[in-house]
């Protein structure tokens, strides 16, 4: 990184007292004192007439770093400032702040923004808050909110304070694929240090537990010995459970059920098996990869991975690594099934078997455990139906045959219920709960 003045001055001399150790620098000439006093309130006070060291030829400055002070000296003399990498920018930021050189700090702050990424976002945030640089803080907060899934994987994420984590858990603009990401990141932070367990109740109140799928809530949170053993967690867990009971939903605070931001990409597969990424703000298509099976298979996306399932195979595409992987084989052969997604699960309903016979079967694939679970069979045989997950229920509509039938499986009771028929026939369609 290089910072330049608009009107370059002659090359500056070497920093005075260059023989000092890395923890100190020295200034030993009157001209140098005049120059540094003109740009730094710290030096201005040091060289004032009532300061005891004003007549000394050499002043020892403790606490400075070689990497931080060299660019300061360059800046004072108006020559080119060289800062090497992220660490250089951060070190150069600390020393001029101590010297009260606000203009230089502002320029370095702008440079640090260019180094912002998922690995250093929490570190930059800490520095910005320590030195009260609002613009830099806002940039770090935006990076963390936008890349929360990646940032919480960084080494620095385990050393953030309770206050910092709590503040992010309360944000509506946290971009996550599901609330499950938020809970698991929080649990990882808690488990990193046993002394943090005292913060569990407060953090659970910040996490929007009602947005977790019912099956995840029941199988993970309610069976967690730490949560069940702390009575202060009861209110948060009760709210989460009550949200999935229609008669009690109105008792759950609205702020706990508000959706957060979602990733700004939509993935789709065309009739030729090419998988595209669509950016909704401009609807540009980016051809990413090709379906390794064929177009008559279930297609779903969850937790930054795409799943293509059919016949007796599952292929998984990692959108971050841009590569395909083998997934667990489904328990049965099927083609043209209905597909639905909930946080942590993929549902496959119906389709036809190897003999081209329509099926009533329903399966749930648990993304976390990588296991297939057989559900209760549907009431009707069908293929090319539409399906969606909503309110702990799996809805299946239309298809061929029974193209006007609507039924749903309540995952809390494991019972299918037939709902009002569609006024017209539907098949080969898509559903969404919103």
UniProtKB/TrEMBL annotation:
Chain segments carrying region Disordered: 1-27
CDD domains: BTB_POZ_ZBTB_KLHL-like
Domain of life: Eukaryota
Cited SUPFAM superfamilies: Kelch motif, POZ domain
Biased composition (Low complexity): 17-27
Annotated BTB domain residues: 33-85
InterPro entries linked: BACK (IPR011705), BTB/POZ_dom (IPR000210), Kelch-typ_b-propeller (IPR015915), Kelch_1 (IPR006652), SKP1/BTB/POZ_sf (IPR011333)
MF terms in GO: actin binding
Entry's transmembrane regions: none
Record's keyword terms, sorted: Kelch repeat, Repeat
Name the record gives this protein: BTB domain-containing protein
Source species of the chain: Darwinula stevensoni
Lineage: Eukaryota, Metazoa, Ecdysozoa, Arthropoda, Crustacea
């Amino acid at each position: 990184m290089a910072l330049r003045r608009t009107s370059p001055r002659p090359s500056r001399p070497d920093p005075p007292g260059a023989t000092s150790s890395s923890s100190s620098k020295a200034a030993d000439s009157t001209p140098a004192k005049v120059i540094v006093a003109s740009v730094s309130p710290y030096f201005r006070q040091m060289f004032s007439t009532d300061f005891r060291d004003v007549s000394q030829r050499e002043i020892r400055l403790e606490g400075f770093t070689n990497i931080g002070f060299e660019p300061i000296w360059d800046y004072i003399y108006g020559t080119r400032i060289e800062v090497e990498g992220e660490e250089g920018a951060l070190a150069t930021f600390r020393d001029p702040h101590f010297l009260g050189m606000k203009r230089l700090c502002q320029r370095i702050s702008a440079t640090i923004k260019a180094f912002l990424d998922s690995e250093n976002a929490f570190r930059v945030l800490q520095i910005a808050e320590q030195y009260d640089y609002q613009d830099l803080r806002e940039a770090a907060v935006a990076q963390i909110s936008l890349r929360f899934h990646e940032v919480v994987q960084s080494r620095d994420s385990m050393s953030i304070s309770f206050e910092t984590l709590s503040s992010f858990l309360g944000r509506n603009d946290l971009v996550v694929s599901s609330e499950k990401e938020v809970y698991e990141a929080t649990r990882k932070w808690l488990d990193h240090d046993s002394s943090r367990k005292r913060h569990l109740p407060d953090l659970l109140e910040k996490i929007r537990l009602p947005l977790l799928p019912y099956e995840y809530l029941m199988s993970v949170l309610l069976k967690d010995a730490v949560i069940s053993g702390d009575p202060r967690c009861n209110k948060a867990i009760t709210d989460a459970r009550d949200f999935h009971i229609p008669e009690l939903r109105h008792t759950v605070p609205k702020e706990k059920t508000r959706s957060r931001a979602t990733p700004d990409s939509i993935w789709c597969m065309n009739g030729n098996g090419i998988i595209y990424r669509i950016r909704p703000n401009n609807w540009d298509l980016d051809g990413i990869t090709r379906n390794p099976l064929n177009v008559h298979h279930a297609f779903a996306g969850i937790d930054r991975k795409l799943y293509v399932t059919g016949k007796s195979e599952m292929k998984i595409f990692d959108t971050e690594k841009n590569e395909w992987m083998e997934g667990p084989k489904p328990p049965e052969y099927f083609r043209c099934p209905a597909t639905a997604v909930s946080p942590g699960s993929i549902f496959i309903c119906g389709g036809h078997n190897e003999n081209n016979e329509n099926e009533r079967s329903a399966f749930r694939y648990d993304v976390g455990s990588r296991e297939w679970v057989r559900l209760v069979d549907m009431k009707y045989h069908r293929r090319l139906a539409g399906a969606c997950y909503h309110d702990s229920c799996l809805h299946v509509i239309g298809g061929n045959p029974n193209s006007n039938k609507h039924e749903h499986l309540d995952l809390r009771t494991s019972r299918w219920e037939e709902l009002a028929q569609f006024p017209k026939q539907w098949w080969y369609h898509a559903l969404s709960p919103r």
